[in-house]
Amino acid sequence: MLRNPAQDSGNQSGASGRACPARTEPPGTFGQLLRAHRERRGLSLAQFATRVHFNRGHLSKVENGKRTPSVVLAAACDRVLDSGNRFTAIATALEATARPRPGWVHPAQLPSAKRLFTGRQCHLKQLDRWLGSETSLAVPVAVINGPPGVGKTALAVQWAHQAVCDGRFADGQLFVDLEGPEPGRAADPFDILGHLLQAVGVTGEHLPADLHQRAAAFRSYLHGREVLLVLDNAADARQVQHLLPGSPGSAVMVTSRSRLPGLLSRVDAVTLPMAELRRPEAATLLRAMIGDARADADPAAVTVLAERCGHLPLALVLAAENIVSCQHPSADQMAAELKAEEARLDLAEGDVALRHRFDASYRALDAPSARLFRLLGQLPGQVDVAATASTAGVSRDEAVRLLHDLAGAHLIRQQDEHHYLMHDLLRAYAADLSRQLDGDAAGAREEDRAGTVTALVA
Ligand SMILES: Nc1ncnc2c1ncn2[C@@H]1O[C@H](COP(=O)(O)OP(=O)(O)OP(=O)(O)O)[C@@H](O)[C@H]1O
Ligand SMILES: [Mg+2]
């Protein structure tokens, strides 16, 4: 039960500038007080939730004493209930009681959520189950992985904002880019811990000088707090493992193009793989971005355009931006522009380019996997293990190993024991690389056997 500290100290009027007369003040905790004020105003919980812009379920928990009210919520209550500073004062006092340790700076590092975020309802629910307040994991870690541009970061940010709106992670939210996909650029855990510790209030001169001490200090800071940590673009398990909280209360979302082999054996993590949007969701996203007028002018062209973007969010967003900026002012013109597969790879706006995102994943492959990837670009349809082995001139076991590596990098997707699928845009990209680097496939095989063909030049 969350006692009202102002009441405990015998100060019934609290710090309110406009205190209600003592005889009309309902007794009890913040939650009881809130319910009494709300009901006195004749507001249902749903009506009240709409007015304060907080989730109804969270408000119910606050009223029942199961959640601590934040100062932001309390201020909204004061505004809607016209109660002066009453609720804000109580929440401020509660916060001071609950957080006796000085030096904590409340981080709020989430990037803004997308106004036009579309679909992914199952993924959001799954994250609710794993990271929500009812989770069975001690320190919940959800790893969101998938191919370049599929929407991993967008999903993580969307869920994080919803959770904060629902009153979770009241001690703050940390967001850090681990720069994983680009080989050689992955951020060093020592430096990241330095940034994280500074973000929660540790000054430069107090940063420990050793990786393990920094990791321990970060865990100490997080102990007893409710913090959301988003680790975006992780390269590997080694990079992530030092950054995790050690005690319950906080939660972690990791995004990565890799499956992060080895992570599950180190921490209690769950994995959420992502694929492209469903067909209707892809069309909905295009419509939302280009506007109803353009979409209604030619709905069939919107469907064709979504198809030519392979329903991949990054391609859809770039195509839509292209339409809105009037380079190809209609869905029909844009779809016609993307008829040739190579043109799809040139989708770009500003410094965001589809091909560059694919390049980073490709460059991270070792030479035999890179070679197989290029070869797959020349084989239409489903990828069959036996056929791949014979075309690539390798043993079946070697083909299985290489295909497993490509699936681990989300450049292909395993369908069953013997088959894999390749996204149309990635296949077009692989074919394009093969044309540039290999000439014909047989020639490439000979060269590689001689050990001369390596990965794509940077
Ligand atoms: N569900 C969605 N609704 C609307 N826009 C989306 C959605 N998913 C992704 N996007 C947009 O698509 C683009 C690519 O998404 P995002 O950057 O999240 O992909 P990613 O999987 O994190 O890529 P990378 O592997 O390169 O980091 C972004 O502009 C993002 O805002
Ligand atoms: Mg990302």
What does this structure look like?
By secondary structure, the chain is of the alpha/beta class. The protein has four domains: 5-98, 434 Repressor (Amino-terminal Domain) (Orthogonal Bundle); 121-273, Rossmann fold, CATH 3.40.50.300; 279-339; 357-449, Orthogonal Bundle (Arc Repressor Mutant, subunit A). It is 50% helix and 9% strand. It has helices spanning 5-8, 30-40, 45-52, 56-63, 71-81, 86-98, 121-131, 152-165, 189-199, 211-222, 237-241, 263-266, 279-290, 292-297, 299-308, 313-324, 331-337, 341-345, 354-363, 367-376, 385-392, 396-408, 424-437, 441-449, and strands at residues 141-145, 172-177, 227-232, 251-256, 269-273, 348-349, 352-353, 383-384, 413-416, 419-421. The strands form three sheets. It has a five-stranded parallel β-sheet with strand order 2-3-4-1-5, sandwiched between helices. Strands 8-10-9 form a three-stranded antiparallel β-sheet. Strand 3 (227-232), helix 11 (237-241) and strand 4 (251-256) form a beta-alpha-beta unit. It is globular and about 75 Å long. The N and C termini lie far apart (60 Å). Mean pLDDT is 86; it is low at 5-24 and 442-458. It binds adenosine-5'-triphosphate and magnesium ion (MG).
Provide a compact summary of the structure.
This protein has helices at residues 5-8, 30-40, 45-52, 56-63, 71-81, 86-98, 121-131, 152-165, 189-199, 211-222, 237-241, 263-266, 279-290, 292-297, 299-308, 313-324, 331-337, 341-345, 354-363, 367-376, 385-392, 396-408, 424-437, 441-449, and strands spanning 141-145, 172-177, 227-232, 251-256, 269-273, 348-349, 352-353, 383-384, 413-416, 419-421.
